[in-house]
Write a structure and sequence with these properties.
Distance between the termini of chain A: 30 Å
Oligomer: homotetramer
Largest interface: A-B, 59 and 59 residues
CATH architecture of the domain at 61-223 in chain A: 3-Layer(aba) Sandwich
Mean pLDDT of chain A: 95
Cofactor (chains A, B, C, D): NAD(+)
Largest sheet of chain A: 8 strands, mixed
Number of helices of chain A: 11
Low-confidence stretches of chain A: none
Shape of chain A: globular
Helix content of chain A: 25-40%
CATH topology of the domain at 61-223 in chain A: Rossmann fold
Structural class of chain A: alpha/beta
Organism (chains A, B, C, D): Myotis myotis
Radius of gyration of chain A: 22 Å
Keywords (chains A, B, C, D): NAD, One-carbon metabolism
Domain S-adenosyl-L-homocysteine hydrolase NAD binding (chains A, B, C, D): 65-226
Pfam families (chains A, B, C, D): AdoHcyase, AdoHcyase_NAD
Order of helices and strands of chain A: EHEHEHEHEHEHEHEEEEHHEHH
CATH class of the domain at 61-223 in chain A: Alpha Beta
Strand content of chain A: 15-25%
Number of strands of chain A: 12
CATH superfamily of the domain at 61-223 in chain A: NAD(P)-binding Rossmann-like Domain
Chain lengths: 306, 306, 306, 306
Amino acid sequence: MILDDGGDLTHWIYKKYPNMFKKIKGIVEESVTGVHRLYQLSKAGKLCVPAMNVNDSVTKQKFDNLYCCRESILDGLKRTTDMMFGGKQVVICGYGEVGKGCCAALKAMGSIVYVTEIDPICALQACMDGFRLVKLNEVIRQVDIVITCTGNKNVVTREHLDRMKNSCIVCNMGHSNTEIDVASLRTPELTWERVRSQVDHVIWPDGKRIVLLAEGRLLNLSCSTVPTFVLSITATTQALALIELYNAPEGRYKQDVYLLPKKMDEYVASLHLPTFDAHLTELTDEQAKYLGLNKNGPFKPNYYRY
Amino acid sequence: MILDDGGDLTHWIYKKYPNMFKKIKGIVEESVTGVHRLYQLSKAGKLCVPAMNVNDSVTKQKFDNLYCCRESILDGLKRTTDMMFGGKQVVICGYGEVGKGCCAALKAMGSIVYVTEIDPICALQACMDGFRLVKLNEVIRQVDIVITCTGNKNVVTREHLDRMKNSCIVCNMGHSNTEIDVASLRTPELTWERVRSQVDHVIWPDGKRIVLLAEGRLLNLSCSTVPTFVLSITATTQALALIELYNAPEGRYKQDVYLLPKKMDEYVASLHLPTFDAHLTELTDEQAKYLGLNKNGPFKPNYYRY
Amino acid sequence: MILDDGGDLTHWIYKKYPNMFKKIKGIVEESVTGVHRLYQLSKAGKLCVPAMNVNDSVTKQKFDNLYCCRESILDGLKRTTDMMFGGKQVVICGYGEVGKGCCAALKAMGSIVYVTEIDPICALQACMDGFRLVKLNEVIRQVDIVITCTGNKNVVTREHLDRMKNSCIVCNMGHSNTEIDVASLRTPELTWERVRSQVDHVIWPDGKRIVLLAEGRLLNLSCSTVPTFVLSITATTQALALIELYNAPEGRYKQDVYLLPKKMDEYVASLHLPTFDAHLTELTDEQAKYLGLNKNGPFKPNYYRY
Amino acid sequence: MILDDGGDLTHWIYKKYPNMFKKIKGIVEESVTGVHRLYQLSKAGKLCVPAMNVNDSVTKQKFDNLYCCRESILDGLKRTTDMMFGGKQVVICGYGEVGKGCCAALKAMGSIVYVTEIDPICALQACMDGFRLVKLNEVIRQVDIVITCTGNKNVVTREHLDRMKNSCIVCNMGHSNTEIDVASLRTPELTWERVRSQVDHVIWPDGKRIVLLAEGRLLNLSCSTVPTFVLSITATTQALALIELYNAPEGRYKQDVYLLPKKMDEYVASLHLPTFDAHLTELTDEQAKYLGLNKNGPFKPNYYRY
C-alpha cells in the first residue's frame, strides 16, 4: 500500500520502481495536489492500481479546512504579530472552506471583513454571511490585513503590494507559496528586515513597511499548530482507507480514483463523538423504513453537501 | 414540459394521460418528495422522459433551506408567540441545512441550543459549531422550545409531549406534518384550545399546557413568509432547468434524473449578485491555466460541498 | 404615590392639583423623557417630593433597550416588509443600548452594518465590535435600510432621503418621532402610498420609492411586540420602587431624583433567574470578607457599568 | 506626581517618606487593587493628596478588560496547549467585563460555555447572552476547561480539582493568583510535572492529570501578550490624568479619590478613532440644543453604562 501526502512517493515509485506496482494493492492520497496528480494519471489511463482520495472526504474537508483554519488564523496572527483583531479591516481572498473559517473567526473577533471570490456561488454565500464582496483593488489601500485562501497563484501581486498602506500584514492560508507574488518583492529598491522568526518587514523607498508572514508560505503550518484532534481525524481517515483498499474483494475497486465510501466517512465521525460526550440518536425501525435508510447508515446521498 | 413541486402533476399524468409523455420533453421537479418519487420511477425503469432535480442544486439548497430558515424560524416564532429568545433553552432535532439555519439564528439571539442527530457527520458538525449533542429524552423536561427539522416521522412522540414542561412550544420546520406525532394528541383526556390563528394550547388533565404551532405543519410556510429574494432564486433555477431540457441536443439527457449542471447553478448565483452590489473577481488567463479551469466556470468539481 | 411614564401625570398634577403633593409620598418615573423633566424640576428647586428614576436601573436599561431591541428590530422589519436580512447593507444611527442591540441582531443575520455616532466612546465600541463607523452621508446612497436609535432629532433629513436608493427602508427605533424628518416628506412633489398597515411608500417624481415604516414613530412599539418577560422586569422594578419610597424611613429620600438602590436592582434580577433555571453561586464567608462585600449584596459599586 | 499600578509605590512613600506628600500634587492609580487601597485610605481619612482612579474609566475598563481579554483568552490557551476550541465544554467563573470577553470569544469559536456568578444582574446578562448559569459543582466533572475571572479567592478549590476529569485545563484570567487554590495542590500524593514553560501537569495517584496554566497566575499576562493598541489607550488615560491633576486649579480636587472626568475619557477614545479610519458625526447646533449638550461633549451622564 502507498500512503501519500502530495503525491511525491507515488511519483517516485512510478519513475524509479514501476515494477513495485505489481505488488501494491492501492494508494491512499491525502492532499489536494496529490489528488490532482492521481486524477491526471487516471485520465491518461496510466493509473495502475486503485487510489483513494481522502482529501475530499467530509470529515477531512470540514475539519482540516473549515474548523481547523477558523482557529489557526487567529493563532498564527497572534503568535507572529500580537495585533488586536477588533476594528481591523481585513480582506480575505477566497471563500472556500478555509476562507469561510478565517472570515467567521475574524468577524467574531470584531474585524471588518471583505471577501474576494471568482465563483459566483461562493460569492453569494459570502454575501449571505454578511461580508462585502469586492475586488481586491477596491479595498487594497484601506485594509490592515490581507489573507489569501484561494489555491490559486499571484492573487496578491506586486501592484497590490505597492498600494497597501504602511504596516499592512500579508499572509497566506491557502495553498503552497504561490498565492502572494513574493518573488516580486525581491528587488533592489526594497529592503527586507527579519524582525522575528517568520516575520519580515519589506520596506519601500519612502519608508512604508509591509509585514510579510512566513515569506508567503502557509501561515497555519508555519506559525500555528495543528490540534491533535484534527490529526486524529485525518489519521483515522487514512487508516480506514488503507484497510478498505486492502480488504476489498477483487473487483470492487478498479484502476481509478475513489472517494472514501460515505459509510466510512460516517464511521470516522462517529469515532470522534465520544470526546465531546455527544449522544447520537438511533433511528427506530419504523423511521428507517420511512426514510428508506439502513439504521447504520450511510445516511445521506453521495451528493449531499453538509 | 412539466414544472412540478411535489410530484403530483407528474403522477397524475402518468395515471390519467400517459400518452402525453410522447410530447413531453422533460420534467423539472422542485421538492424533496417529488425528487424521491422521480428516483423511484427511474429505478423501476418507468421514467419515460428526462427529469431535472433542481431541489439539490446548491443555490436552492442553501437559500431555500439554510439562509431562508435562519430568518423564518425567528419570524415564525415571533409572529405566533411573541416570546423572547434570550436565555431560552431550545432543542433542535436535526442538523441538516434547515437545522443549521435554525441553530445559528437562535444561538445568535441568546438561546441555549441543544441538537439531536442520527448522522454522525452532522452530529460532529453540531459539536464543532458549539451545540451539545443530546438524545431528545435527556433534555425534554427542561427545554422551552422543541423544533423539528429532520424530514423524518414521529421524531416528537406522545411520550415526549407528556414529559415536556408547562408552556413548552413545539413546532416543525422540517417536512410535511409527520415529524411531531400530532395525532397522538387527539385523545379525550387532552383539551385543545385555539388561542390564536396557528396557535393551539393542548391542555393536560393536570393543567399543563403545550403550545403547538401550525398543528405540526411547517412553521416557515404557515406562520412566516418566504422573502422574494428566495423565490427569485428558486424560480430562476426552475426556469433555467426548463430551458436546458428544452434546448438540449438530442441524447444529452436520457430517461433519467439529473442534477442541474453546475454551470447553471453558478449562473443563477451570478444573476443575484448585483442586488448586493457584489463584485466578482475574474481569473486571469494565467490563473485559469494554472487551475485548469475555464474562465467562465464551472469552477468546482461536482462533489464540491460549499 | 405617582407611577408615571413620560411625566404627563406628574406635570398635570403640578398644574391642576398642586395641593395633592402634600399627600403624595413620591414619584416613580419610567421613561427617559419623564426622568429628564424630573431632573429639570429638581434643578429648578421645584420638585416637592422624592422621585425615583427607574429608567436608569440596570435591569430596565439592559432589558428594555439592549436585549429587547435586539429581537424587536428583526420582528418589526419582518412583519412589515418580509425582507431578507442576509447580505443587506444597513446603517444604524446611534450606538447606545438600542443601537448595540440592533447592530448585533442584524450582523448575526448576515447584514453588513455601518454605524454613525457622535460620542467617541460609543464610536470606539462600534469599531471594536466590528462595525465601520461612518458619517451618514458616506453610505446613504448604497444602503438598503436606515435605522435611527439616537434619541436625537432630524438625524435623517430630507437631503438624506433624497439621496437614498430606490426601495430603501427607513425606520426609527430610538425616541419619539423626531429622528426622521418625516414632515419634510409632506410636500406636493412626493406621493404617499399606504401599501399596508404601518408601511408607506413615499414616491419621488422620478419613480424612486422609499419605504417608510410607522411614519417614523417607534418601530418596536408600532410594528413589533414587547415580550412579557421584559414587561415583567419593568413592572417589578416599578413596584419595588413604589414600595421603597412608601416604606422608606423619614429622611432617607429628600426632594430629589434618585436612582433605584442597587440592591433592589439586583433583587429584580434575582426574581427573574428561576425562569431560566439559573443557579446563582453564594459567596462563602471567607470570600465575602476578602471582597469586603455583604453576602446578600449589593455586589458592585454604583459606577459599575455591567 | 505618583503614577502607580497596584499601589505599592504609594504605600512605600506613605511608610518611608511621608514628607514627600507635601510636594506631591496627586496620585494616578491604574489597578483594581491600588484603587481599593486608595479608597480605604480615603475612608480612613488618611489620603493626603487628590488621587485619580483611572482603572474605572470607560476606555480602560472596556479595552483592558472586555476587548483585550476577548482575544487574549484564545491566544493564551493556544500558545500553552494547542487545544482545539470547537466542541469543548468550558466553565467560566465570573461574568464581569473579563468573563464577558472570554465567554464571547469561546462561544464564537464553537465551545459550549457555562457561567457561574454571584451577582444576579451579571447572572441575568449571562442568561440573555445565551450561557447556562450553573454552580461550579454542577458541571465540574464534565468540563474540558475551567477559567476564573472573578477577582475573588478560592473560587476553584481542591475539592473541585479532585473532581475534574482527566486532562482538564485550569487557568486564571481574573486577579492575582488567588482564584485557584493552587497551594492545595502542593501535597505529597500529587506529582507535578512541568511539561512546557507555564504548563504544569498535576498528577493524581490514579493517573489523572490536570493541566494547570501559569501556576494559577494571570494567563493574559503570563501566556499571552497585550496588544500595543490597548497599551496606548491605557497610557493615554494615565497621561491625561496626570496632566489634569497637575493643571487643575486649586480646589478642584480635594484629598479624595476621583474618576477621570468623562470629557477626558471621551478624549482618549477620540484620539484612537483615526487608527480605524472611523468618522465621528458632529451634532448640529439645533441638535445640541435639543439634547441639552455641548457639541464637544461630555455626551453622557456620569451613570451611563455604555
